[in-house]
Amino acid sequence: MEKILEVLFSGASIGAIYALIALGFVLIFKSTGILNFAQGELCMIGAFICYQFATLLNIPYILSFLIAIALGALLGSLIDLLFFRRLVGEPIYSTIMVTVGLGSILTCFSGLIWGHDVYALRSPFMNKTVSAGGMIFSQASLYTIGISILLFALFILFFNRSLLGVALKGTAEDSDTAGLMGINVKKMHMIIWAIGSTVAVVAGVFLAEQSFVQTSMSHTGIKAMSAAILGGMESLPGAIIGGFIVGIVESFAANYLSGLEMAGFHFGDIKDVVAFAIMIIVLMIRPHGIFGKEEVKRV
Amino acid sequence: MSGSYKVSYKEDMAIFQNLWVKVWLIIFIILAVFSPILLNRYQLSILNEMGIATIGALGLNLLIGYTGQLSLGHGAFLAIGAYTSALLTGKLGIPFFLSLPLSGLMASLLGLVVGIPSLRLKGLYLALGTLAFAFIVEYILFHWDLTQGDLGMAVKRIGIGDYVIRSQRQYFYLIMAFATFAVICTKNLDRSKIGRSFKAIRDRDIAAEAMGIPLAKYKVMAFGISAFYGGVAGCLMAHYNRWIVPGSFDISLSIAYIAMIIIGGLGTVLGSVLGAILITGVPHGIVYVVDLLKGDYPALSGFIIDFKLGIFGLIIVLTLLFEPKGLFGVYQRTKVYFKTWPFKY
Amino acid sequence: MKTRTTILSLLVGTFLLFSMSSAWAAEVRGVTDTEVKIALLVDFSGPGKFAGPPISMGVKTYVDYVNAQGPIHGRKIKLIIEDNGILPNTTLAAAKKVIFKDEIFAIGFNLGSSGSSAIIPLCEENKVVLMPHGANKRFYSPGNKWVFVPYSTQYNMASRAVDYILSQNRKARMGIIYQDDDFGRDGLNGARDAAKFHGTKLVKAAPYKMGTIDMSPQVRMMKEANVDYILCWTYIPQTASILKETKMMGWDVTLIGNNTTAYRLMFPIAKQLAEGYLAVTPFAPWEDVSPKVKDIIRKYSDFPVVDKAPFPAPMFLASWVYFAAMIEGIKNAGRNLTPETLIKGIESINQLKMDGMCPDMSFGPKRHVGYFSSRVLRADTKNMRFHEVAPIADPKAPQD
């Protein structure tokens, strides 16, 4: 029982990160119709920025986190301005491929600036634990889960209650009509890119908190995509729940199935394919995910 | 478009549409025949890589450019072809000229399986499905005893009876023959009912269905044919390099292939060829430039090496932003420019 | 119809040329009267980028030193450094370039094991002696005529680790966390075979995929199996992550890892947790390297601070060993330097002295590996260095 709880907890702590990244996917996809394959790279850049300030320049952790968020938002809006403003309405392959290309450019730049080694982020939660009921939890994981849940609540409030949030939602629903209603669609897209890249930065810092900073962190992005698919690409709560589900399933698979050998086939670290297996199963059975609506096309 | 008007079906269907095409073709054949004598082994090895890439790129273009189904897993089909042929020739002793079509068929079979979800999935969902498929194929190659893990396995030489292909020159003729054959096949496919159906599906699938094109059949068929080309390219690659590792067929290979057809020009045969040549050539070009600069400007050459990883990304982004039709579009524009000169259009 | 005949005749012409193609062979590639070209393939652009600068600097220093001692049989060593991007495809392209374009004589060092195995056929075909770094047991057993491994493989080191654990505690329960690729699996096989040899077994083996940084499932598996020692066939980030997890579980277990973790980078990453961490490596800790070697570095390297070793010292030195073997082989081959005589030359190396930096090297016609032995180091976080706790020794279990 204790083990199950521990596995659940470690699954949830990585799941919260998937959920944050998936949230970024969904936000950007819903409003601009672009699936941002560079989300994982944005997350890596965010972690590196935080590392730059917190570890290299010795600025207090909270402050460097905030600087990373601000710079992340700036980067997001810059990306929209430079690339995607020109690509609205282009066929889907070209937008996807631009984000893929962008991802490799970002990796390359972070390699140029920070190098390809592994670095540790200096943070107040580093290697600290809390024990409760005979179990030990890492502070970094607790902090990740707590802050993420807070953020999710804030987001849902923001999109339902604030004027800007409603305008963003309207743009996502139908950008042409929103434009006619006097909403500045271009500005909305830019804000969405800023928000999308901000959540990626937050996810990156949390990931670095639980492990390390390195360029290969960006692979988490692709796994988070299966969370977005599971939740249905169009739904914010879907992305959040999908993220947690993928994290927890992964954690259980890693704890109970890894290392098996069967008839010349080594299961190895099964954790890594679980996300993709989930993705394929969802796409086969229910392509619009748990919360997505089936699209009806009129000719 | 100005200049070329076709007044009969026969003209429209002709494979060599005018005199110039024939002239270019003859120049190409002469070059192909004599280049092994003029070029050294290094240059020939680059041409061989380009030839193999051309076959793979043609296949991917049939899927993405003609049918409009985005696939991020083309590398997986190359892997399947490569491993099938390696196992068939290595373990069962089947000759190369049998294992080549068999590896294509094997890839095609799996392509059909991946193609089935494409009936329900569109656009980005399909892209993600193929991506997940590619990761799972890589995982299996990594963990199956038969494929011998990430250190890979040796592949036999190509041989017909006692005649064994060894030198780059021999490989060049063989690969060029296959590449030319693939180009002709694609060109014919393009002109046939199948090609036209593919294009109709790409432009508007619902409308295509309304006009009597069975969507399911052609969508799955596109996957099958594209995977066949991929499998053949993978098989040639395996026998050319004579050692295969799963790491050669990762996501970066799929992206390189997509880069080829985007830069070359989607939905055109010439585009696939040009793109394959360019993208395969770029890394070699970088090596050449770095060598040139190494002596005098070590810092600059170091910077170029640093940026190597991002160069494909940069090429893809710049092409899509500024020249979405790719090299084929550039070629077309130049052609029109000279045809209508001195007028603007 | 006319075009068709033209095409047909051209095709026939092609076929004639095809059958005419003949091999040409004259002098030995890469060897002149005054010079011999040796290639160094190392990563400057791929995921192994961090290894590029120290390795190329190390080899440059060593080759400068050798050339300063005078030419070998009238020939100086010319080093060709090429970026191989560590991945199989990029390594293949780099190897083709150095063999076909730069026309090198041999590849003295190639970083990356799957890349190394991908270029073996090319090397065989063109008679290039290849020394792969990051080697695996498969490179010397069954081995290949053209491949030499002047370094302990992960198989050897894992066997040595098991020997060490059992010498400390005959009844120790051992578990292994390994990277799920040739690197980790070679360690797994080594540890398994050694445990079997000693009449015991590994209680648990937990794989992880390269690049994973959350090691909690693996550590939890180890804890459930209640092991006394965890063998870590992992790289630095994963090792640090394992240390972190065991600390968080409040579990006092001894970790023993491989050569890739036995250097300074461990300390800034794992911080205090590294205390008491053991690592098996053939190389002496940088602080214990003989003054002679340090003098060479001071004299021939443009590297600023030698004593502080801000670079990953083992990599800097490891690359020397390859070139030491290669150059000794060229010396033994004599004036008539061909690929075949080079092979004979390397095979006749016997007890090549390495000044205590690493074990002395011996090769033979049936033995294409320099040594099997390694030592055990212990991390000291206070002084940010490793200390030797068990000397160089061969693993007890048979290694080939």
Residue-averaged pLDDT of chain A: 86
| Total count of domains of chain C | 2
Tell me what portion of residues of chain A adopts beta-strand conformation. Answer: under 5%
Model regions low in confidence, pLDDT < 50 over at least 5 residues of chain A:
none
- N-to-C terminal Cα separation of chain A, in Å? 55 Å
How would a textbook summarize the main sheet of chain C?
A: 7 strands, mixed
The overall pLDDT average of chain C reads: 85
Structure characteristics:
heterotrimer; A: 299 residues; ABC transporter involved in vitamin B12 uptake, BtuC; 11 helices; B: 345 residues; mainly alpha; two-stranded antiparallel ribbon; 4 strands; 2% strand
Can you describe what's shown?
The complex is a heterotrimer of chains A (299), B (345) and C (400). Chain A is mainly alpha-helical. Chain A has helices spanning 2-32, 39-56, 61-84, 92-114, 139-161, 163-173, 175-180, 185-210, 220-231, 236-256, 271-285, and strands spanning 129-132, 135-138, 261-262, 265-266. The longest helix of chain A is centred in the first third of the chain and has 31 residues, at 2-32. Chain B has 15 helices and four strands. In chain B, the strands form two sheets. Chain B has a two-stranded antiparallel ribbon. Chain B has a two-stranded antiparallel sheet with strand order 2-3. Chain B is globular, with a radius of gyration of 21 Å. Chain C is α/β, with parallel strands linked by helices and 400 residues long. Chain C has two domains: 35-152 and 288-369, Response regulator (Rossmann fold, 3-Layer(aba) Sandwich); 155-281 and 376-393, Rossmann fold (3-Layer(aba) Sandwich), CATH 3.40.50. Chain C contains twelve helices and eleven strands. Chain C starts with a helix and ends in a 7-residue tail after the last strand. The model of chain C is unreliable at 18-26 (pLDDT under 50).
